[in-house]
Amino acid sequence: MKKAILFFLLVQLFCFINITYSQTVLPLNRDYTQQIEKSLIKKNISFHDSFKPFMGEDIQALINYDSLTNFSNRDSVFINHFRHPWFWKKLRRENFLVIKTPDFSATIDPLFDIQIGQDVNAKTNHFVNTRGVEAKGKIGKDFFFQTNFYENQATFVDYINAFVDTFGVVPGQGKAKKFKNNGYDYSMASGLISYSPNRHFNFQLGHSKHFIGDGYRSLLLSDNSFNYPFFEFSTSFWKIQYTTLYAVFQDMNSTIMQVQAYQKKYATIHYLSYNISNFINLGLFESTIWQARADGKNINYQWYYLNPLIAAQTITTSLNGIDNTMLGANMRVKFLKHFSIYSQFVFDDWDFGKSNFSNGYLRNKFGYQTGLKYFDVLSLKNLYFQYEYNHVRPYTYSHYNPLQSYTNYNQPLAHPLGANFSESVCILKYRIKDFFFEIKLNYAIYGADTGIANYGKNLFASNHTANNGLDSYNNEFIQGVKTTLLIEDFRMQYLINPKTNMNIVLGVSDRNENSILENQHSCFFYFGIRTSLSNFYCDF
Fold first, then answer.
1. In terms of CB atoms within 10 Å, which of 85, 125, 207, 538 comes out highest?
2. The whole model's pTM is what?
3. pLDDT for 504-525, tens place per residue?
4. pLDDT tens track for 54-74
5. CA separation (Å) from 86 to 73, 78, 81, 92, 463?
6. CA torsion angle 10 11 12 17 (round to 10)
7. Domain boundaries, the chain
8. Is 74 in contact with 92 (CB distance < 8 Å)?
9. In CATH, which of 3.90.1150.10, 3.40.50.2300, 2.40.160.130, 3.40.605.10 is domain 2-63+95-531?
């Protein structure tokens, strides 16, 4: 094993003597990735599109990425006759500030999200007031950097208020503190440095998010939670892309009193992507999480956690070892230049000696996803349809030691509903010039925990507190308080500037959550102007 690791590191060292090849990092945003996926599927191009965010030069080498967001020629009429064409170009086409020298280039843009809205059921008014800035650029021929910062004040509808009050964080956007009577103040910063010694290797050090999969959700690793520190290296050769991610997550339910800091936990994640053909991609996933501190003492970082070889940790310690180890797979098949079907499967703490798919053993921890994407539906250009089904067994992602649950900053690292649920998602999008229309339906059934009863949805609860006992049988899917959730979203956008995805948005979100214990209904209308570079999930 040590020889294999040494060989892998020597290969990395050798790559540094090769010609440099700078790589930019594209925004982790569905508006961007959907346009890229559409172009790739139409040209039958072999590309590793499951690990996100994408690398800009990889995309540009296959398709003209800039052309995906080009505006129509009508803008030229305004620019040619506008009294101040510079202002129009900055508003519609360009970054706010551009710096270019032979060895350095950078862009700086203001970021904002100004929204107002009303929950017509609760008869309450709400707002979002976000201000920020982003800077990104290249240093020489081999380094790319990116950083941004957001400062926010907001008031939310009741179910999000309940979430923030319970977990202390705004979904995906960090720790919240009270603002005036019923609002919250929160901030978020991210950044990274990327180094590409050649077209086969990339190294990144940063504080951000990732997404693994082809769906709207991911059961492996999603951008649902807050940003985290990470080091990532990936290599691409032949039909293979291999990525190793070292990350530091935080458990906000546990603090180290001596330094007034949240308890950290470390993670090593491997993802191997293989393009069987231009149409079929198969990915293999492994993650290991372990706590950084136990019994009041720091746990030394062991060398084997740096192991860059996928499945080596699972073989060494097994899925039922002291650490929280998971295995997974991702598959995507493209066909007829318009369709893509995809699926995921995740195993967690499976005990092959005691488990089968029917006996309800507690360690039958698994989840799966299936989905379909249809581009240019019925040959209507820019009409897009997506259907997705997600199913996760009770107690999946949790651990007997809560400090090693698959979570970060009080949110799941995979699906926002945690575990013990099934969900269907339908999305219909249409674009005509710079106008975007989207209808999205989420229908979920889950088994809620009650009081101290742990039925398997709460990822922060120890498996030792399972309702039927540790290593118990007869744990049923959707056990606990059966709850149905229906969310209907309609959104209309007008794209102002594609460089920062600046847009004007008008929308409505209707949410119904029903169980024998309570019924909740909100109907939220909102309007705003914003720069949208990240995905935020409030559909839970």
1. 538
2. 0.91
3. 999 999 999 999 988 999 999 9
4. 988 888 778 777 666 655 444
5. 17, 11, 12, 10, 61
6. 100
7. 2-63+95-531
8. no
9. 2.40.160.130
